[in-house]
TrEMBL record:
Assembly with partners or alone: Forms homopentameric as well as heteropentameric serotonin-activated cation-selective channel complexes with HTR3B or HTR3C or HTR3D or HTR3E. The homomeric complex is functional but exhibits low conductance with modified voltage dependence, and decreased agonist and antagonist affinity. Heteropentameric complexes display properties which resemble that of neuronal serotonin-activated channels in vivo. Interacts with RIC3.
Residues spanning the membrane: 228-251, 263-284, 290-312, 420-439
Highest taxon in the source lineage: Eukaryota
This protein's name: 5-hydroxytryptamine receptor 3A
Reactions that this protein is recorded to catalyse: K(+)(in) = K(+)(out); Ca(2+)(in) = Ca(2+)(out); Mg(2+)(in) = Mg(2+)(out); Na(+)(in) = Na(+)(out)
GO BP of this protein: inorganic cation transmembrane transport; serotonin-gated cation-selective signaling pathway
Alphabetized UniProt keyword annotations: Cell membrane, Disulfide bond, Glycoprotein, Ion channel, Ion transport, Ligand-gated ion channel, Membrane, Postsynaptic cell membrane, Receptor, Signal, Synapse, Transmembrane, Transmembrane helix, Transport
Subcellular location: Postsynaptic cell membrane
Organism: Anas platyrhynchos platyrhynchos (Northern mallard)
Amino acid sequence: TDSLAASPQWLPSCPDVAPRASGVPDPDTPALLRLSDSLLAHYKKSTRPVRDWRTTTTVAIDVMVYAILSVDEKNQVLTTYIWYRQHWTDEFLQWDPACFDNITQISLPAESIWVPDILINEFVDVGKSPDVPYVYVRHHGEVQNLKPIQVVTACSLDIYNFPFDVQNCSLTFTSWLHNIRDINLSLWRTPELVKFDRSIFMNQGEWELLYVLSHFQEFSVVIRRRPLFYTVSLLLPSIFLMVMDIVGFYLPPNSGERVSFKITLLLGYSVFLIIVSDTLPATAVGTPLIGIYFVVCMALLVISLTETILIVRLIHNQDLQSHTQIPALCLRRFFSLTSLDPAAKLNHYGCEDPREREVAGGTRPAPAFGSVAEGSPLMPSILHEISTIRQFLEKRDEFRDVAREWLQVGYVLDVLLFRAYLLAVLAYTITLGALWSVLGGVSPP
């Protein structure tokens, strides 16, 4: 601005006072009105305002970010609200302040003068920008055009690190019609002043402005998402469910409570994923890391449930349980027959091992209890039945020993699998946290 003001300018001579309707000059005409009439009387806004067509019009531009309105990951669109400033020198809008009551600055309608056709290359939609109908013109010809703009631009949004993502979107200003020989774009302020200028930024929304990089006519707006809301609503519930799954390993594996507990956790996590599916950003480019995190957590819950089912199946062996139940049934049948009806027939093979009966084949007549007399075959039959019961009791003890050994094996496998599962969860958590901390952290260049 100072260089433009200090450069030699062509100043016209003082014009005559505006005439009255009768043709006689009116000395009471306001200076602003006389100046406006003098500047716009023979002005042609369709022509670039230079006296020598070889002269390049230098347009200095500046951008100040006011707010981040929305970030549409699905359509890859960024909506920002900026304060846009530009100034240039119009050689046809110069005057001598001494001729107009020392006026050095005047506002003129923007539609009445030449305005450079500066557009943003990334524009995809017309925003709801307020109309600013005036521009400021200084006496040496410098025109300042300041206006707020709602910018809807295309931006390549990377959501891999959601919700710890950082986005970098460019705003490239260029003349739509003129080339660099006619209009040359430059920066109004130095890149150092532009980078960390957050004086007007409204920083209470979801996005935080890190810095604005400027290079010639391009401005790169770097923003970062505030992850607190997503951490509370997405990550913490998932972490709590995984912790409860680990705590569930402390339930005894020989009871059925652990299986039902883990099934309940799996169903709860499925409902949680359905609820949060609308919160996750959806794009056709890639999947966010948090989506992979949820899928792996679901897989870990399934693996945990599968491990619990295998351990419970190993401990509760159905073949072992069936052999331990046979002697009790035989005892109840024997004493019921002998006490209630001495003449009743005792089914001998009712207390036998079913596999022995299959080997014997067919049916064997049961001995009958006759009258209690000396030499009756009742006593040998009773002794035979008691001997059979004793054999089954011995077998039951053997089966119990075997079941106890399988129970110990199940406990050992359960502890080993729990430790492996715990190490896998911890390694996955540390890896994911390191990725988010490394990829989410950004330092200005």
